[in-house]
Amino acid sequence: MSSAAAVTIEGVSKSYEVRTGEDVLALDRVDLDIKPGSFVAIVGPSGCGKSTLLSLLAGLTPVSSGRLGIDGDIVVRPHPKAGVVFQSDLLLYWRSILDNILLPIEIKGLDRKAYADRARDLLAQVGLKGFADKFPSELSGGMRQRVAICRALIQEPGLLLMDEPFGALDALTREQMIMDLQTMWIRLRNTVLFITHGIDEAVFLADRVIVMSPRPGRVDLDLAIDIPRPRRWSGIHEDPAFQHYVRQVREMFEAKGVLVAH
């Protein structure tokens, strides 16, 4: 397994030119240090730059100013230690499940056969044993997203970047995926950066919750979560510590006018 990666974000800003020719500032001087092996959730309103920050870290978009580092390497292109899971599973419909998982291996010119057993093991770990020869159209949305996670994990990345990976799932499937992700992370102990709109989801999964301001995105709150693991979704909402952390995040959103208190 790759060792967990350290992440540094130093004074990062990102602006985009819109159709009118004006620049729109998406992120404004964001600073974060993420320790190896930590699970960090970033939560904020739509348009606050959460996904932009992940795209920058993934090396898919260049920064406007500042710099990003993964294990001391400045990010200018996709980093070999990083795996990415998007909200859409992005599976190739004409490839089998096994072939979809092995796609990053093929792209990097690595030995497919050497990773095939690993791919099947990952499928078994996410409850999809026996599905290697199926095609995406034969799987439900939740099952396809499990495959997307396997594809990101096939190279055992030291950094897993997840952009609202459960946002399109129904409530029950989402709950199971949250529990499955926690179990997987406890076993792997890699570094995870998890983007979400869900306050409960962020507090449940993370060691640390970063709350972003409305655009331009800045860090409004950096909250350490001290709740023992493994955590159980079925009872977590009655836990006083959980309630306290959720309230802190909600109060920040209320102060910024993102949520209206009644």
TrEMBL record:
Pfam families: ABC_tran (PF00005). Keywords: ATP-binding, Cell membrane, Membrane, Nucleotide-binding, Transport. The keyword Cell membrane applies. InterPro entries: AAA+_ATPase, ABC_transporter-like_ATP-bd, ABC_transporter-like_CS, ABC_transporter_ATP-bind, P-loop_NTPase. One of its GO terms (molecular function) is ATP binding. Coiled coil: none annotated. PROSITE patterns: ABC_TRANSPORTER_1, ABC_TRANSPORTER_2. Residues 7-239 form the ABC transporter domain. CDD domains: ABC_NrtD_SsuB_transporters. The keyword Nucleotide-binding applies. Belongs to the ABC transporter superfamily. This is ABC transporter ATP-binding protein. It comes from Variovorax ureilyticus.
